[in-house]
Amino acid sequence: MVTSSTPLHVRHVNLAKGFRGGERQTVLLIRALAAHGIGQSLVCRHDSPLPEALADVDVAILHADHQLAGHFRGARADLVHAHEAKAVHWAYLHRRLRGTPYLLTRRVPQPVRNKPFNRLTYRSAACAVAISRIIEQHLDALAWCPIARIPSALSHLPSDSQQVEALRQRFAGRRVVGHIGALVDRHKGQRLLIDAARQLRESHPELLFVCLGQGEDEAALKQESADLDNLVWEGFRSNVGDYLEAMALFAFPSRNEGLGSILLDVMDHDVPIVAADVDGIPDIVVDDRSGVLVPANDAGALARAIVDLLDDPERCLRLTTGARQRLEGFTPAAMAERYLSLYRRLLVPDEA
Fold first, then answer.
1. pTM (2 decimals)?
2. Looking at the chain, which terminus has fewer C-beta neighbours within 10 angstroms, N or C?
3. Is residue 343 in a domain?
4. Residue 12: closest CA among 59, 55, 53
5. 8 A C-beta contact, residue 266 and residue 241
6. Do both 129 and 261 map to the same domain?
7. Considering the domain boundaries, does residue 277 fall inside one?
């Protein structure tokens, strides 16, 4: 029996193949929860990068390459936390096999499809956590299970002064408009950046669009922008913090976005933001208080907002100051405390 004084063991599940925002948030949460002394294990694929990212954390790694594997490895957990869609299926099966309750975190803004298995897995969950208001609204409309809202956290991305100086020297004479995101246009909207760069090429030759990331549209995006000398594709970079320090502005024209947690790291490096007014982004970027919001799918509005903001240093300072003031509620520690409170409430409802 679990009581308020019983040490908890939480089994995190993330069966994603790569390492994107959801995996970064899984790592941040496990690290922050470790400070509370609870037991933790992680179910992930054999080829997952998560174990390496958690090599210095006391967390048991249990390998499972699909939803049917790994259910009888390791000691019994008190609660399973599913961090992505395949993990939800794993958690449901685990509950059927071993009776362990589970919660899930929903990170994408698209409504859950009203299919029999989705209804079954959500209705069997102890709770569904939404990372933004728009996701919470979608889940609330379905009314399949209890809902909580816990936003993602910033990463405190480090920077190296020598690397930052090298980037500034490389981009000397240019004002860097940065972008970081998977190169998947239907999600992150990089074609809008290409269009904005093309619009500003002649009128503002000092601007240089620098895009970090890799993804399925990489080859197509490079081909479509091959004629532009004011846009560069940097590919995947591990030293994101160094690049943030070299940016004059950050552009984030996503077409859909659960929350956009990279914006928190941009704010943490005091870079002014122009972002699309879509889905969960307004949970982070409050227009004209912590950044500038523009209509989604509007390259012209994006280009105008970039120029207007860069031409107004006082406004840039006001927005970055406002952005930093918002970060207190988005730290890994704050996220971990909210999840830990939720874990205990689910397991010991009479003592919460």
1. 0.92
2. N
3. yes
4. 59
5. no
6. no
7. yes
Report whether 252 contacts 276 (CB < 8 A).
yes
SS3 state at 246: coil
In tens, the pLDDT along 60-83 reads 999 999 999 999 998 899 999 999
Could you give the 3-state DSSP secondary structure of residue 135?
helix
Q: What integer pLDDT is reported at residue 155 of this predicted model?
A: 95
Q: How far apart are CA 90 and CA 96, in angstroms?
A: 10
Cα torsion 113, 132, 51, 28 to 10°: value is -170
Q: What is the pLDDT of residue 352?
A: 47
Judge contact between 107 and 258, C-beta under 8 A.
Answer: yes
Answer for the pair 82, 13: CB distance below 8 angstroms, yes or no.
yes
Pairing assessment for the beta strands 9-13 and 273-276 based on DSSP bridges: unpaired
Reported as a single tens digit per residue, the pLDDT across 210-239 is: 999 999 999 999 999 999 999 999 999 999
State how far Cα 231 lies from the chain centre: 24
Residue type, 72: F
Claim to verify: residue 134 and residue 222 sit in the same structural domain: no
Burial string for 177-208 (b: 16+ CB within 10 Å, else e) reads bbbbbbbbbebbbbbbbbbbbbbbbeebeebb
Query: Would you state the structure tokens that stand for residue 246, as one six-digit string?
Result: 């070299």
CA pair distance 261, 105, nearest whole angstrom? 14
Same domain, 305 and 258: yes
Number of structural domains (the chain) is: 2
Q: Which domain holds residue 149?
A: 9-153+331-351
Residue 2 lies in a domain: no
Say if residue 23 is in the same domain as residue 37: yes
Residues 19 and 146 in one domain: yes
**Residues across the chain:** 352
Measured distance CA(305)–CA(303) in Å, rounded: 6
Which amino acid, residue 287? Answer: D
Cβ neighbours of 115 (radius 10 Å): 9
CA-angle at 47, arms to 337 and 189, nearest 5°: 70
CATH number of the domain where residue 219 is located? 3.40.50.2000
**Burial track 10-25 (b if 16+ CB lie within 10 A, e otherwise):** bbbbbbbeebbbbbbb
Distance CA 23, CA 28 (A): 9
What is the arithmetic mean of pLDDT over 311-331?
A: 96
**Is 1 domain-assigned?**
no
